[in-house]
Write a structure and sequence with these properties.
- By secondary structure, this protein is of the alpha/beta class.
- It has one domain (about 20-230): 3-Layer(aba) Sandwich (Rossmann fold), CATH 3.40.50.980.
- The protein is built from eight helices and nine strands.
- It has helices at about 1-10, 25-35, 50-70, 85-95, 110-120, 135-140, 160-170, 185-195, and strands at about 40-45, 50, 75-80, 100-105, 125-130, 145-150, 185, 210-215, 225-230.
- The strands form two sheets. A seven-stranded mixed sheet has the order 7-6-5-3-4-8-9. Strands 1-2 form a two-stranded antiparallel ribbon.
- Strand 6 (about 145-150), helix 7 and strand 7 form a beta-alpha-beta unit.
- Helix 3 packs across helix 4 and helix 5 (about 110-120) crosses helix 6 (about 135-140).
- The relative contact order is 0.16.
């Protein structure tokens, strides 16, 4: 009965079981998917859609920037503190392609929670939304974070729409408190510098850590669950 249900629900034929050894790591899955579905929609936000091919190109640009413009090495941790914006998958997959371990960080964290997570994970880099950058300003000096990348909500939208939405959020709705991070780099600048540059694709083993996913901390401080590529 269950078998017939799945066959009816997924006529294309998705197997009931997967072979976890088919791919050595997340990067291999990403590469195959982006090549196979290059012209298909991957992510949409605020009326903008990027294809799998565009996702691979953008994440490659971010990976190249990480490798060529920072001192980050494979195995280093990078905290990603973003809501549901197009920059999120670009940053996460780009970081993984550069060999970094992603530390997902809740955009609603307080400075105390951010400080604990960054220090506990050993994060050396941070990608955050401009709306939270004033909190990063207070936290970063108390951590090992040396590289900060700041993005605005509409950064991956077409130029006119990007300017309009980012301006409304910042100046009309006043949702971006003033911050001072003089060494921070704009997310779009990393993509511009890394565009077309070669990437030394990381090839981690199945049991290597891909993501440090922190718990809710309901019974104490949040703890980082180590999620491997397998």
């Amino acid at each position: 009965m269950i078998e017939h249900f799945w066959k009816d629900k997924y006529p294309a034929g998705i197997t009931a079981e997967i072979n976890p050894d088919e791919f050595p790591n997340i990067q291999a899955v990403l590469k195959q998917s982006c090549q196979r579905f290059a012209d298909k929609p991957a992510f949409s936000n605020l009326g903008k859609t990027i294809t799998y091919g565009e996702l691979y190109a953008l994440s490659g640009a971010f990976a190249a920037w990480l490798q060529q413009h920072t001192d980050l090495k494979p195995g280093d941790r990078i905290a990603v503190q973003l809501p549901n914006v197009l920059q999120y998958p670009v940053a996460v997959f780009g970081a993984m392609r550069a060999g970094l371990i992603v530390v997902n960080t809740n955009p609603l964290y307080t400075t105390r929670e951010m400080e604990h997570q960054f220090n506990d994970s050993g994060a050396k880099a941070l990608v955050c939304l401009a709306n939270m950058a004033h909190l990063a300003e207070k936290v970063v000096p108390k951590t090992q974070v040396k590289h900060v990348i700041v993005t605005e909500v509409a950064d991956l939208l077409p130029p006119i729409k990007r300017l309009l939405i980012n301006s409304v959020i910042k100046y009309v709705k006043k949702m971006v408190p003033a911050y001072n991070l003089p060494r921070a780099v704009r997310f779009n600048d990393t993509l511009a510098l890394g565009k077309g540059q070669p990437v030394s694709e990381a090839n981690p083993q199945p049991n290597d850590v891909a993501v440090l996913q922190y718990t809710g901390g309901t019974t104490g401080v949040a703890k980082g669950a180590m999620l491997t590529h397998r």
